[in-house]
Specification:
This protein has five helices and twelve strands. The protein is α+β, with helices and mostly antiparallel strands. It has a single domain (about 5-264), classed as Ribosomal Protein S5, domain 2, CATH 3.30.230. Strands 1, 2, 3, 4, 5 and 6 form a six-stranded mixed beta sheet that branches. A hairpin with a 2-residue loop joins β9 and β10 (about 195-200).
Length: about 260
């Protein structure tokens, strides 16, 4: 069989995929590991099929922004390494890296997942800022969901470093048992449209054949915090409704996987 866009589109039309999964099944195995890096305040490694992503959380004390003097902050960066795919090159972040970081950041930020006021130490002077780095180890498709899952796992595992009460200096070699003030746990699921059919967790080959996609970030209650469309093809109201419904269903599945691994 020659694998190209037309082949994948024809298979999708018949509710089939190259790897014999159903259109709405995630690849296996799904693995989640945390606390992998002693230099990060929180870290996680996520594997979905052959796609592998790592996320690390670093905390620093900075001066708050002028418009939010009593709040901390968060920033999400993504590095798509040449190690993970021959399509990526060393250098400034490309369009895909920027989109992965922005989509992940938006789901967290719009959900108000972190209580930013609790990150403030001294209004106008000092607050904790959270930097999350996403690094791809192997890209075989669906970086959006793998990255979102890794970031949430890393945030949940993060612990504040020890701060000297007299000098205010941070001892990054030692951590407290204080977790980040996570008030919500947003998780993204991306639904793809190929030849009129909806599917999730595409392989790298399937990603090259999609017409449109919709990433839906939702919390444990099913409350949607962000939507991000991709692809050139338009989506009808009915299609968007079906995509959102499917994304919410699969978010519950991924959340159960996360909770299972964190409980081990």
């Amino acid at each position: 069989m020659i694998i190209n866009k037309e082949t994948i589109a024809e298979l999708a039309k018949d509710n089939k995929r190259l790897d014999n999964r159903s259109l709405t099944d995630f690849r296996q195995p799904i693995k989640i590991e945390t606390d992998l890096s002693w230099t990060a305040e929180g870290s996680a490694r996520v594997q979905i099929g052959s796609t592998v992503v790592m996320a690390g959380v670093k905390l620093s004390l900075e001066k708050p922004y002028n418009d939010t003097p009593d709040e901390g902050g968060i920033m999400v960066n993504a590095e798509l390494t040449p190690l993970s795919s021959p399509e990526y090159e060393v250098g400034a972040p490309g369009i895909k890296a920027i989109e992965v970081s922005r989509v992940t950041d938006r789901g967290i930020r719009e959900a108000k997942a972190l209580d930013m006021k609790k990150l403030c130490i001294e209004p106008g002077e000092k607050a904790w800022f959270v930097t999350v780095d996403i690094v791809t180890i192997n890209d075989d498709g669906n970086l959006f969901d793998a990255s979102g899952l890794a970031v949430l796992a890393a945030l949940k595992s993060a612990r504040f470093p020890v701060v000297d009460p007299e000098t205010g200096s941070i001892d990054y070699k030692h951590k407290t048992d204080v977790a980040l003030p996570l008030t919500k746990e947003p998780l993204p699921v991306t639904v793809y449209k190929i030849n009129g059919r909806l599917l999730i967790d595409p392989t790298q080959e399937e990603e090259k054949a999609y017409d449109a996609r919709l990433t839906v970030a939702s919390d444990t209650k099913g409350t949607i915090s962000a939507l991000q469309k991709g692809g050139d093809a338009p989506l009808t109201i009915a299609e968007i409704s079906s995509m959102v419904e499917l994304a919410l269903e699969k978010a519950r599945f991924l959340r159960s996987e996360l909770n299972k691994f964190l409980a081990d």
